[in-house]
Write a structure and sequence with these properties.
By secondary structure, this protein is α/β, with parallel strands linked by helices. The chain contains eight helices and nine strands. The protein binds adenosine-5'-diphosphate and uridine-5'-diphosphate. UMP binds at residues 54, 74, 135-142.
Length: 238
């Protein structure tokens, strides 16, 4: 059997991807399918840390958040990621994977706080670590949290699983003529202002020489193909 291309990866799962075709919330069949993909690579011995987004829950409360103070809304968004992290870890448990949730904001009765050496220990023990509450700071995103935690745990790559199957010359949802890059440098992605990830996340990964792979969360088997180093999605490199 061929070996995985990576030993330790940081997987960013979009919160919105958990909704499936629902307008918001967590779709059971979708989360189970995503966890089955994660279990497949975890069982290959790849050390996996996950940063989960919160868009699926936050979208449901967004109308009520209109006109709200930005920082307050962002803290609500971070709490949404904690809910997703708990759901994800439990779905992993049901599929025989041991996961540990670590939160960037103190919420001790619910989940343990993020402590870097402990996260590293869990990874070495073969547990999946789910990082909740993003960076713990308002005005940031879970993409930036993925870049930050990926750097902290010395991941070999950040895998951004999202609704599109790579980085395009323009937003493919708006421009039908947009074409997909096989690979692109950080400098080009930043200078062209490609919106697939925020500039803070791109800049941090660039400075840390931490490559990013953007690929589809919807396409069956895509995560495994990425892990095996096969041609899938778009590589963003130094
Ligand atoms: N140049 C681009 N290439 C690919 N996707 C893009 C681009 N510009 C904007 N997008 C949009 O970015 C979205 C992914 O970013 P985001 O909404 O942050 O995802 P997530 O919820 O997975 O974090 C895609 O659904 C896509 O419509
Ligand atoms: O470090 C962080 C990470 C997230 N958020 C908030 O949490 C929300 C949910 O995260 P994100 O939009 O990145 O989730 P996704 O798009 O992946 O579902 C964001 O909109 C922010 O309001 C934040 O304030 N700081």
């Amino acid at each position: 059997m061929t070996k995985p291309a990576y030993q330790r990866v940081l997987l960013k799962l979009s919160g919105e991807a958990l909704m499936g075709d629902d307008p918001f919330g967590i779709n059971r069949a979708t989360i189970e399918r995503m966890v089955a993909d994660v279990a497949e690579v975890a069982n290959m011995g790849v050390q996996l840390a996950v940063v989960i987004g919160g868009g699926n829950i936050f979208r449901g409360v967004a109308p009520g958040a209109q006109g709200m103070d930005r920082a307050t809304a962002d803290y609500m968004g971070m709490l949404a990621t904690v809910m997703n992290a708990l759901a994800l870890a439990d779905a992993m448990r049901q599929q025989g994977i041991t996961a540990r949730v670590m939160s960037a904001i103190a919420i001790e009765q619910v989940v343990e706080p993020y402590v870097r050496p402990k996260a590293l220990q869990y990874l070495e023990e073969g547990k999946v670590v789910v990082f909740a509450a993003g960076t713990g700071n308002p005005f940031f995103t879970t993409d930036t949290a993925a870049a930050l935690r990926g750097s902290e745990i010395s991941a070999e790559i950040v895998l951004k699983a999202t609704k599109v199957d790579g980085v395009y010359t323009a937003d493919p949802k708006k421009d039908p003529h947009a074409t997909r890059y096989e690979s692109i440098s950080f400098d080009e992605a930043i200078s062209k202002n490609l919106q697939v990830m925020d500039a803070t996340a791109f800049a941090l990964c660039r400075d840390q020489k931490l490559p990013i792979k953007v690929f589809s969360i919807v396409k069956p088997g895509a995560l495994k193909r990425v892990i095996m180093g096969e041609d899938e999605g778009t590589l963003v490199h130094v």
